[in-house]
Write a structure and sequence with these properties.
Helix content is 73%, strand content 0%. It is mainly α and 145 residues long. Helix 1 runs antiparallel to helix 3 and helix 1 packs antiparallel against helix 5.
């Protein structure tokens, strides 16, 4: 099956979110390393940042592969759940900003953009042509009729 337009758009938004997320990680690396060193059990274990970054990259690329290239309903729903977590993250960030618990700045805006792109991408997985892509209804049959 030829990739439907919704999946092509999904892929663009998803990979944009992924790339911006990597940029955000790079920009906040030292702050995260400082936060890690504040925990007495984790002092000197900055390798954990590298491990979590690597795991995040692997998981993100696997989800991309199994949604945009080799459709898997399981991957679709994992992306959907992560999109819900992204929405919760945006709500939490707004609360933090409103109560002045975190300073407003570029990292906050960048992470908001990452989350918004991710949520927009995830919604495309539920469009009519994407439903057929995932094999939830046979090709040629009218979805949601």
């Amino acid at each position: 099956m030829v990739r439907p337009q919704s999946i092509v758009r999904y892929e663009r938004l998803y990979l944009s979110s992924f790339a911006l997320g990597l940029l955000a990680s790079a920009l906040t690396w030292s702050a995260r390393a400082d936060a890690l060193s504040m925990n007495p059990l984790l002092v000197g274990k900055t390798w954990l940042l590298w491990v979590t970054l690597a795991l995040g990259i692997v998981i993100s690329l696997l989800l991309w592969r199994f949604t945009a290239r080799a459709p898997s309903i399981v991957a679709k729903w994992i992306v959907a759940v992560f999109a819900i977590f992204s929405a919760m993250g945006i709500a939490f960030a707004i609360f933090q900003l409103a109560t002045a618990r975190i300073p407003f700045g570029k990292p906050v805006l960048l992470m908001a953009a990452v989350n918004i792109l991710y949520i927009a991408a995830a919604t495309l997985l539920f469009h009519r042509d994407a439903v057929q892509w995932f094999g939830e209804i046979p090709v040629g049959e009218e979805p949601f009729a």
